[in-house]
Amino acid sequence: MQDLTLTLVQTALHWHDPEANCRQLAQKLQQITKPTDLIVLPEMFTTGFSMNAPELAEKPDGPTTQWLAEQAQQYGAVVTGSLIIEENGHYYNRLIWMRPNGSYDIYNKRHLFRMAGEQHVYTPGTARLTVELNGWQICPLICYDLRFPVWSRNLNQTYDLALYVANWPAKRSLAWRTLLQARAIENVAYSVGVNRVGTDGNNIAYTGDSSIYQPTGEIIWTKSEEEVVHTITLSKKLLTDYRQVFPAHLDADSFYLDN
User: Is 43 marked active-site?
Assistant: First the structure.
């Protein structure tokens, strides 16, 4: 039974400037002073949340993917976050789960934020991703996915931690915090959200509110407004013990998703 150490990077982002963002993030990661298993960056961490995919998109093995591989190798940790990818004539808001050995998995954002017209630019994902890390099963998702409990549903305890990377605006911060807590409670799993701060090129403000919730729904850590690189260890024993005394998953309704 192994605990999991993760590092959350809550940061402002340079608008439409991948090189500046990667340079800034590399400097921030130098604040990590102890071993970590997982480093989590926000949604579209190279550009901010942008609909200008034709100008900003990278190929699947482009410079940012290579940068992620370098950082993962340097810190001996998985590094994850989403960016704009073009593949086979389609644009994706794609999360990359980069391992220290250079292998990686991907998750394409399923729920595209129609209030910004994201569905007109990007192609939605069709498959959820679950990855193993140090004996933990982790389900990484992206921003607007948080609003859709069916997509996050932890049937048969498929995962131990639901992870959301985001560019979630300040004016909807109540929904962000409430839904992160709800996902932890209903799925009997840890729920982690990593959001950005600052103001983007569309003059949209972000307060961060990156947070970690226990399976009970209790909050472990949160931070608003400030840039921060925070490392914390999650207890596998706490999760296992709680699932034993409160096995709500045994009464969950069965269903399947028809794409």
Answer: yes
What are the pLDDT digits (tens) for 77-96?
A: 999 999 999 999 999 999 99
Q: How far apart are CA 6 and CA 234, in angstroms?
A: 8
Angle at 65 between CA 86 and CA 118, to 5 degrees: 40
The SS3 of residue 234 is: strand
Mean pLDDT of the chain: 97
- Which position among 28, 58, 139, 143 bears the catalytic label? 143
Among candidate residues 67, 71, 188, 102, the one with its CA nearest the CA of residue 137: 188
* CA angle, residues 51, 56, 60, in degrees to nearest 5: 110
Catalytic residue status for 139:
no
Catalytic entry in 28, 109, 118, 139:
109
Active-site position among 22, 43, 58, 139: 43
CATH classification of 4-248, choosing from 3.30.70.260, 3.20.20.80, 3.40.190.10, 3.60.110.10?
A: 3.60.110.10
Give the count of beta carbons closer than 10 Å to the beta carbon of residue 126: 9
Is residue 109 annotated as part of the catalytic site, yes or no?
Answer: yes
On the 0-12 / 13-18 / 19+ scale of CB atoms within 10 A, 245 is exposed
**The pair of three-digit structure tokens given for residue 48, joined into one six-digit string:** 């901010």
